[in-house]
Amino acid sequence: MRINFTGHTANISDGLSILAKELHFEQSEDGYIIQLIEREGPIRVKNENGKGEIYFQEKIHFFRGLGLWIENYIRHGDFERIEKPQFHTNGAMLDASRNAVLTVENIQGLLRKMAVMGLNVLMVYTEDTYEVKEYPYFGYMRGKYTESELKICDLYAAALGIEMIPCIQTLAHLTEALKWNYAAPIRDTADILLVDEPETYRFLEKIIEAASRPFQTRRIHIGMDEAHQLGLGKYLDKNGYVERFQLMNRHLNSVIEITEKLSLKPMIWSDMYFRLGSKERDYYDLNVEIPAEVVDSIPNVQLVYWDYYHTEEDFYHTFIQKHKELGSDPIFAGGAWTWNGISPNYGKAMVTTEAALNACKKTGIKEIFATMWGDNGAETPLMTSLPILQLYAEHSYYEQVSPDHLEQRFRFCTGGNFTDFMMLNQFDETPGVEKNNLHESNPSKLLLWQDPLIGLYDKNIRGLNMQEHYKQLSYELAITKYEQVELQCMFDFYKQLADVLSLKAEMGIHLQKAYEAKDKEKMQILWSELAEVKKSVSKLRVSHRKLWFMMNKPFGWEVIDIRYGGILARIETTQHRLSQWIDGLIDKIEELEEKRLYFEGPYVMPKGTIGRNLYHRIVTAGSLI
């Protein structure tokens, strides 16, 4: 479509050039006239009598309005739409610290989609994956961003009306940064900095300066969450026990001195204050009591209330109020549930998001963002977060969001089919798992990596007909077709994952059944089926690798490669053990002699779940360390 934009175009010209290909238009003086009017008030887009109009207040409102105009022009011809922003800022935080480091090109691709959605904040969570020239081991071999790369992203975002905010850690969650010898003098425990140590603050000044330098914003997220062992390592040996409220505040004040020196406006995750005020050390303790003197001593810092767990709106109301009582106008951070395993948990993400964002609107919260963590190896591709980002975007412009509206906007803003994406939910919302998977089962991860000969989760899935479930899912995924290479690559990967699970999910159960029946003929058939499993896993590894290298820097893939190599080696060893038994070279297979038990017992797992775990607890009952 050829468009002639007239009126207030000065601020948005660079962004228009960026989005022209994304939205399939070109700028031309003889194109269809769209008048742009920048003023205070809601977004208003219309087309009437052969002329378009877009009214906007913020730059990001224009780019959302542009998408709305094009979408409605194609659908309706003449139209008028009005949208009232519900939040000042709304956006996303992507994780670049769990091995997957999104390339600059893919950050730019995400920014384009965010602009059309109308999201105006992006944080890139970097524990050690950014360049600090004074510390060459900081982020070494981890795919860290250079200063130049981050600056390129920031300028690109600014052209689209999106604020990029550095998001780092200045107390805990620093295992990868602190594992090298240079960090010995500033290490309290494996992942926590040594409070009160002068060298610690020299280090922090350098990393804060490096993290903030590429960005135009003066805001910075300095982390400080989940410092559970604060003051209980080297600090305890040197100084004895010190009450941890004191340590937390003293450290935070020292860090704030640094941010003030650099003219930065910091925010922190709020959980440590709540944990320290809870008898159970529970962030979400409704009976939390934070002493008044502690509240009074909290420095000038914005608190970020993170919560991706609760399904009741009332809980969010209560905890937002508790944050306000600390003297902060808090930011709310929800979750896209990209960290469940190898596939997203859309059920939990949507239920918690609806409850949380409705509460945010009713309690006057003005800033929100969705976290896209990549726990335990970033096996789930970050583009699976797009439906949840769309949900955040629509909540940012409407009091209530209907499913039909969400699906329609998702198709326009991303080019994806909402129903196709929702099929990915079936990887973990399987037989035996409750609706919406609220207890966060991750059977697809369990059944992909679990050892076929040891089968730690075989008892959990017995009788659930998992192989048939994944076979049906494979059929459904086979019909997804996309022109966008990255989307097709993602669905090809998930189709192959379903194929693997349709063959492998219950293999351990079948092996033990044949062994207990002393059925060597059946065991020979299973030996052949294991060869097919091995071929299918190899094909999955190649598909996963293609997707990873399309989206991420190469660093971090070696971890996933090792996981695939492990399961391929264990399949080969399983075949070897079966052959020995079938040929009479051994009289028993000890791994199959063991009675299968529920993983951690049924009394631990709530009804409606079949288990959730991390790689090292899935593959062995031994130790990988």
The tally of domains stands at 3
Annotated CATH topology of the largest domain: TIM Barrel
If helices are DSSP runs of H or I spanning 4 or more residues, what is the number of helices? Answer: 24
Mean pLDDT comes to: 96
Name of the CATH homologous superfamily of the largest domain: Glycosidases
Main beta sheet: 8 strands, parallel
What report would you give on this structure?
The chain has 625 residues and is α/β, with parallel strands linked by helices. It contains 24 helices and 14 strands. It has helices at 13-19, 59-76, 104-117, 147-159, 175-178, 198-212, 234-239, 244-261, 271-276, 292-297, 313-324, 346-362, 386-395, 403-414, 418-423, 443-449, 458-461, 466-477, 485-504, 507-516, 520-551, 557-582, 590-593, 615-618; strands at residues 2-7, 26-27, 32-38, 43-48, 51-56, 79-83, 89-95, 121-125, 163-167, 219-221, 265-269, 302-306, 331-335, 367-372. β12, α11 and β13 (331-335) form a beta-alpha-beta unit. It is globular, with a radius of gyration of 26 Å. The termini are far apart. The mean pLDDT is 96.
Topology readout:
Elements: E1 2-7, H1 13-19, E2 26-27, E3 32-38, E4 43-48, E5 51-56, H2 59-76, E6 79-83, E7 89-95, H3 104-117, E8 121-125, H4 147-159, E9 163-167, H5 175-178, H6 198-212, E10 219-221, H7 234-239, H8 244-261, E11 265-269, H9 271-276, H10 292-297, E12 302-306, H11 313-324, E13 331-335, H12 346-362, E14 367-372, H13 386-395, H14 403-414, H15 418-423, H16 443-449, H17 458-461, H18 466-477, H19 485-504, H20 507-516, H21 520-551, H22 557-582, H23 590-593, H24 615-618
Parallel strand pairs: 1-2, 1-3, 3-5, 7-8, 7-14, 8-9, 10-11, 11-12, 12-13, 13-14
Antiparallel strand pairs: 4-5, 4-6
